[in-house]
Amino acid sequence: MSLLRGWDLLMGMNARNTLIAKVNPSEAIRLVNNKYETKQALERAGAPTSPTIRLVRSRREIGAIDWAGMPPQWAMKPNQGLGGSGIMLAAGRQDGRWHTLAGKPLEMATVTSHLARILDGDFSPRSTDWALFEPLIHAHPALAELSFQGLPDIRVICVGDQPKLAMVRLPTKHSGGRANLHQRAVGAAVDIDTGRVSAARVGDVPVTRHPDTGNQLVGAVIPHWTVVLAAASRCAAATGLRYLGADIVIDEQRGPLILEVNARPGLQIQNINGRGLMAAIEPERAGR
What we know:
By secondary structure, the protein is of the alpha+beta class. It has helices at about 15-25, 25-30, 35-45, 110-120, 140-145, 225-235, 235-240, 270-275, 280-285; strands at about 55, 75-80, 90, 90-95, 95-100, 105, 130-135, 155-160, 160-170, 185-190, 195-200, 205, 245-250, 255-260.
């Protein structure tokens, strides 16, 4: 069933939670809370995701890391971190030392200390965690032009294997270069059929241009859109979720990559699009 425009069709928190309890099995939710296992499931389903350079599962494994053999650019992240917390980025290496995106030296002691904090569960709801090293992602130029620093990402809401709503989240100066709507990143609605930005908001305020760069947002076309939708559509079969949010980035070299699959995606996407989700979820609610 296609979505119908109208605020009366907005899905509220209670309806979302009831739907999730009905259609998202607990084992599927546990899977997507584990980034490494989710990546393996996505790879088996033929969905594009960022490769793992190294998996570190305990403090004992820190001493076995061949730091000299690590690539000059990487992202270190908690396996079960929430909201992008605990991520450390290395943008390059010079004279044996990595440096940050801002060009500041990243000392080895700082790297290993942060790695130990991830393993100790400082950024996870669990008491311990694993750490993933992945290649550093560089935003596709078409998306980088729409944004202010940071890494823009795309959220696609799927009901089963059907994409229903989409938005691109664009970092701002206020959001500290993070694609986080709660920190006043731009949320831009993307038309499912065309991949074209149809509207944008910062908080409750509609905008047509990025507040920091002044670049036109409305009318912009998201690159590789059919590949983005195809990637999102594989997430249900890969994870077992029937209602999900797929978070996708577009790397300038590798194209669309699934970063995460969310079993409890937020509802702001409805406000960004001016479209509700109730019509789209009716078949799932009815058990069809």
